[in-house]
Amino acid sequence: MPASARLAAAVPTLRYTLAMPAPQSHYFEVKMDLGGFPAEYTDVKMPVWAPGSYLVREFAKNVEGMQARTAGGQALAVEKINKNTWRVRHPKQANFQVSYRVYAFELSVRTSFIDADHGYLNGSSVFMYPADNKMLGSTVAVQPAAGWSQVSTALRPATGKFTYKAASYDELADSPMEIGNQKVLEFIANGTPHQVAMYGTYTVDEPKLLADLKKVCEEAHRVVGQNPLDRYLFIVHNLERGGGGLEHLNSTTLEVSRASYSTPAGYNSFLNLAAHEYFHLWNVKRIRPVALGPFNYDQENYTHMLWVSEGMTSYYAAIINQRAGFSSREEYLNKLAALITEVENTPGNRVQSAAESSFDAWIKSYRQNENSRNSEINYYSKGELIGAVLDLNIAEATQGAKHLDDVFRLLYDTYYKKAGRGFTDQEFQNAVATVAGRRYDAFFQNSVYGTKTIDFASALAYAGLTLSNNPVANDGTLGANFSNRTGKLVVTNVIRDGAAWTDGLNVNDEILLVNGVAPGTETVNALLSAPVGTVVSVQVRRDGLPRDLKLTMRANPNRKFQIQPMASPTPAQQNVLAKWLGK
Known about the structure:
seven-stranded mixed β-sheet; 16 helices; alpha+beta
């Protein structure tokens, strides 16, 4: 054999076949045809998490029937060597096939699902990859279940019906598929074809929906000003109950309550979700912290910057919809005031920083418990507020010439286009300083990496706005929440430093008596609000035994924030406001 032929034969190839012969059983069937693997053995892996959803989900738990055979059909030895790795021994057999089944019955944006109606998959929960060839390109031949006629994916088509190609495993894992009889809508934005694959029953004015999505996409594009794609796919699951989305390289999956479109609030919520996931095209998928790509699929990928990746994406979702005309300036400011109220009334905001919340997402954010509100802050919410404050500060520092958009443009050009990598924590701070012409190191140290209260009032004043806050109630409060569980009043949450926290009321305590009376509407009201200093006698059942407590009502620490325009803003303040929210 000539040397050139031997070299060609040694080039590895990978082809997947995805079948679903019995969709009602909730199984995908996968075959991997590997060619040009001359080693004694090859390890194949199943990821433990889905990028964009920061929790180790152990997808290997759903794998069954792992087998391997030579090209001639001879069985090969397969040994599982750790929780998500299988070693296939194929001495002198460079070409072989691996096959397995995946149980998929969790319909969410981050997992995979198949039933008699449709199939949906995220690549990292269905497709394995050769451990030492993660960057190997592949083709995927999809065999839809009987009666299904559509495959929706952002992967590029290859030769053959329902056959697609991926440049690497990263692209395959980042390109979800909707398989079934979904309705596919289309529109053009920024010269790029967009598809909307609508699964499930829904009622909506489709021309209006497409026109509004087009506006969302075009406003999102204007932030960075550069189009990174030549096609895009929205996969929309219209369900009885739904909410949430997950970003991908050239697509997204959205879960929506099918009733959402029928009310203005529900419809605008859908557009906000679409804007959030679409802006991830830039922020996360291209402009990203160094930890978020290339991915290590075996373990957690830690970063302190999810408050940027997710929180600032939430910020831009609201700004994009405001710029697109789906909410007024007043409506946006009311939303911002409500978000300040939410964050500032969360006890965990004084315990956990935005950076720490980001880093600990893997062990905390997706594993909430009864004490999470006391010990954590949501990096989405806190990051959204940090984004607003930085935007205002940059606009003020540059006299309305620049704002946060310019930071993302700088990051895109510097790290995505030129360096081809993510940015570090310090490089993000440097980018803000470069655009603003001044440094904000103290702000980052105190209010991003620390828990010092953000000076919202000063930032809003730059735009001619005032921030007020008032007590939410004048009465005292117990600092606990309750629920009725089969006729029993049970404590579900105890708030840090409140009366219940200090005086020893526990989560899961069953309330038996309040001031000697069985709990009813009046006695519960007495628990929830009474003059500060009032002592309430409570008998609870804990671990099956009665216990008597005395709880002293404390002042309610919660505040309600409001944003109002100043009566006579200066020209400089008007300039900042116009740069921030438009004229």
